[in-house]
Design brief:
193 residues
Length: 193
């Protein structure tokens, strides 16, 4: 089975590409969704977050982690972000390996791991190819502020937490430009298949 790692910077369009791939019948593991699930439902993760970052980072009545409050803490403090990532990343990797094994056993020809931090976590070796969804920083900032409701300072903090796309471009096997229209993005994807 061919493993494709789908990555890119924040707000470059990884989810759009992942959704398109799923529409074509290709299974996609979404690392962000896995993290959100851990932060919402995993008892050991909730206990870790409360102990490490304080009870104020939890939502009331066991509803999970207040991701906005936790994000303000960890994106403003690199050592704290690394502590959180040190907890989450191994759990996400384990879930992704299970996903790939299930699809391998089912005879799937291709499966995709959609992971924003492939290069930052030095896990590109887990894939046969790495595809990068690329967009310029102005587009990223606009999407973060307009579509996700972040302030300009919050958007800058999120962008600063990831490697520059220029660095990722040099390492990727495939680069998909997503600064133009969706039709242009889909044309690139169709050409790959």
């Amino acid at each position: 089975m061919k493993r494709i790692g789908l990555t890119g910077g924040i707000a470059t369009g990884k989810s759009t590409v992942g959704a398109w791939l799923q529409q074509q019948g290709i299974p996609v593991f979404d690392a962000d969704a896995c993290v959100h699930n851990l932060l919402a439902h995993d008892a050991s993760t909730l206990a870790f977050v409360a102990k490490t970052f304080g009870e104020a980072t939890l939502l009331p009545q066991g509803q999970g982690v207040d991701r906005a409050a936790l994000g303000q803490l960890v994106f403003a403090n690199q050592p704290q972000r690394r502590v959180l990532e040190g907890w989450l990343h191994p759990r996400v990797r384990k879930a992704m390996e299970q996903f790939f094994m299930e699809h391998l056993q089912a005879g799937q020809a291709v499966a995709v791991g959609m992971v924003p931090l492939i290069y930052e976590t030095n896990t590109q070796h887990l894939y046969n190819e790495v595809w990068l969804v690329d967009a310029d920083e102005a587009t990223q900032r606009k999407r973060l502020c307009e579509h996700r409701g972040l302030s300009p300072a919050e958007a800058e903090a999120r962008l600063a937490a990831q490697w520059p796309l220029e660095q990722k471009r040099a390492m990727a096997d495939v680069v998909l430009s997503n600064t133009g229209t969706l039709a242009q993005l889909y044309e690139q994807l169709l050409a790959l298949f």
